[in-house]
Design brief:
The structure is a single chain. It is built from seven helices and seven strands, in the order H-H-E-E-E-H-H-E-E-H-E-H-E-H. By secondary structure, the protein is α/β, with parallel strands linked by helices. The chain has two domains: 101 residues, ATPase, nucleotide binding domain (Nucleotidyltransferase, domain 5); 59 residues, Actin, Chain A, domain 4 (Alpha-Beta Complex), CATH 3.90.640. Strands 3-2-1-6-7 form a five-stranded mixed sheet. Strands 4-5 form a two-stranded antiparallel ribbon.
Length: 193
Amino acid sequence: MANASLLLKSQEYKKGALILDLGAQNNSVATFYDYLFCGYKQGYLGTEKIIEDLMKNYDIDIKNARSIYQTYGSADLAGASNIGVLQLPGSERSIPEIEIVTLVDNVLNMILTEVKENIEFLVKDANLPLIITGGGALIPAIAEKCEQFLGLKCHSRNFGRIGGFNPQFNAAIGGLVNYLANNSLINISLVQI
């Protein structure tokens, strides 16, 4: 929500848009219409669930799980003919790449199911563009995955007038506004930077 002024184009503010913050710990959807903030709903699944499932399913440490996630996150290997196996570093064990892609895809489907329910809760006519931000916006082909799953026109954006393409900057600003809104007497509804 705090990043709306950094993420939305003027026409999206006027005609309406949804912002999906796809974070590590959770996801949230905010709606904007006619230059106004209209609603917000938070989900409880984030992209960290992918890393947790990789660690649990393959009995690997967090470093290897993060590396695998960054390599295979949302990769479209389903139709590829050259699918191989991943040799785990420091181990004789290998994992078929298709298993990894399937695991990542299944977790993304769980997250996007929650997102879809939250969008349906917030708006009756969900024919608005969806702007994806947060660390999950960096997952390869996430906009295409969201379009297929949600049936909305989706764009991945992690930029602003300050900070350029920098998801860490946007997350820091969002976290600061969240902290101030929850821990002070200041009533913050939308921050313009």
